[in-house]
UniProtKB/TrEMBL annotation:
Coiled coil: none annotated. Residues 23-252 form the AB hydrolase-1 domain. One of its GO terms (molecular function) is catalytic activity. It comes from Lentzea albidocapillata. This is Pimeloyl-ACP methyl ester carboxylesterase. It holds the Pfam family Abhydrolase_6. The lineage of its organism: Bacteria, Bacillati, Actinomycetota, Actinomycetes, Pseudonocardiales. Signal peptide: none annotated.
Amino acid sequence: MTTASVNGITIGYDDEGTSDDVLVLVHGHPFDRTMWRPQAEHFSTNGWRVIAADLRGYGETTVVPGITPLDVFAADIAGLLDHLGIEKVVLGGLSMGGQIVMEFARTFPERLRGLILADTFAQAETEDGRRNRNDMADRLLREGMSGYATEVKWKMVAPDNPEAGEFVAGLMHNAPPEGAAAALRGRAERPDYTETLTGITVPTLVIVGSDDEYTPVSAAEYMSERVPGSTLVVVDGAAHMPNLERPALFNKAVEGLLAQT
């Protein structure tokens, strides 16, 4: 692991490969950068420099209690790129990571060569959703991560993939409750990114698991229909983590996107 001091925090990240072509991968909630190992290993040995960082509040990056809005996460990514002297990247994210990617596209469009939006959705949170996210944040602070991790394990990963399920469960059990709660409170206040999608001008891949209950195929179709020229890929037999459940299919779809950038 390498660390960088960015925006008043210490970010832990992996930086693999030596190419001038840079792929940055943003993890979801409540995970860390190791969820991207199948992609980091594959693409760093196939012509790309791959950067995967732990978000603020997760993994080996500083935990900041309270509320972490999506624009703070996006600014941290931009700050890390500045630290590394990187101007333009292909940026991909899954779930919350995909919403951070959309915020980055809204705020720093000039820094993008391409986008990957995996198992995510663009609309603002509903009133019920805001209440549920804040209630869950309270619960994580009160009880820790274990109960939540056990409950959602087989919604994150399809039940026929026990190896991926155990890996994802471990990520969730090990997440810092304060960081996860701060991210939940921030996502509860997220804006609607529909207008941002219509203004994207770089090659974009929208990818989703066929059995994803959190961000169903309809949510991916909504995004793909609004991003000009985007490609939609549905990964059969995967739930919310197709990059881990079906890595070969996921990587093939990403390869198609990278060839366009």
